[in-house]
Amino acid sequence: MKHNYLNNRDILKEIHKSKTTYCSFLSPEDGFYDIILPSVDKINKKNTLEGRKLRAERLGRAAYDLAQAATTEKLKLDDFSVKYTKLADTDVVFRIMTWDHIPMDTTKKKKAGVILDDEPVITEYDDDGIEIVAPTKYTKCNFPPFHHYKIDEAGKPYCVGKSHWQGDIESGEFCKDHGTMTKKLAHMFMKLCERYATRSNWRGYTYNDEMRSQALLQLSQIGLQFDESKSQNPFAYYTAAITNSFTRVLNIEKRNQNLRDDILEMNGLTPSYTRQGMSSWGGAAPSGDFTDE
């Protein structure tokens, strides 16, 4: 039986599909970018040539994947290569990271614990006492916003797509709630959490399900915040988020256990086996006092 292991290329593909549901393009082909640039001013001959090379590589890989999915024979990627010299400059799609089309946000600072429509829900496993500061300039988005550009025959760039946009490019409006995450990406998040929960240093805890649930909630909130312009390794990005979620739950549960053991000892009752073992071996004392008993 063939196993399909998670890899960065497949994850990036699903991230791209999810983000395009929040975007508006002149044509479906304009949704596939070839090169990412920080501003329109960076669209020059050098970056256009690099974009043609990346486009040729992307088209060759897409043709290879399509052919490989239709047969059980092992195909060669070189047989589907596309020469960048045959591609026109006007076909290259540039992704420009920009906030120009995002409306301003005048919302004032909000304290933690207040549930708002545009803020994540605060749970007992989140950091306590942290003040949530709303953006003072632009409306908060679920991923870094961008424009897609092409160049005409004269080399002048023009916009062919916008993120967080609904309707026509010119007459449309800002919208950040009309898109959705793909089912396959959500399934990847579930598999990542399940696989991580079976590691030897986590699987023995009785609240392993709590850790996995909190990690899945965290991924659903920050899953699309991965910025392709800064990294091409979403696997490491998601693994770090899962690790932080697991560690946060562990610290919360340890704190609750210490409080429970303190109350039991104050009433002359037997604490947990963990506290008894720590006391017998001269370990950490109750209430976080790390002096020898």
Task: Please report the number of helical segments.
Answer: 6
On the 0 to 100 scale, the average pLDDT is: 85
- Relative strand content: 5-15%
Strand neighbour order, sheet with most strands? 1-5-4-3-2
Radius of gyration: 25 Å
Order of helices and strands: HEEHEEEEEHHHH
How many structural domains can be distinguished in the coordinates? 3
Shape: elongated
Q: What class would the helix/strand composition place it in?
A: alpha+beta
For the sheet with most strands, the description reads: 5 strands, mixed
Number of strands: 7
The rounded distance between the terminal residues' Cα atoms is 57 Å
Helix content: 25-40%
Low-confidence stretches: 128-135, 285-293
Describe the overall structure.
This protein has 293 residues and is an alpha+beta fold. The chain folds into 3 domains: 107 residues, no CATH class; 38 residues, no CATH class; 114 residues, no CATH class. 37% of the residues lie in helices and 9% in strands. The strands form 2 sheets. Strands 1-5-4-3-2 form a 5-stranded mixed beta sheet. Strands 6-7 form a two-stranded antiparallel sheet. Strand 6 and strand 7 form a beta hairpin. The protein is elongated, with a radius of gyration of 25 Å. The protein starts with 7 loop residues before the first helix and ends in a 13-residue tail after the last helix. The C terminus is likely disordered.
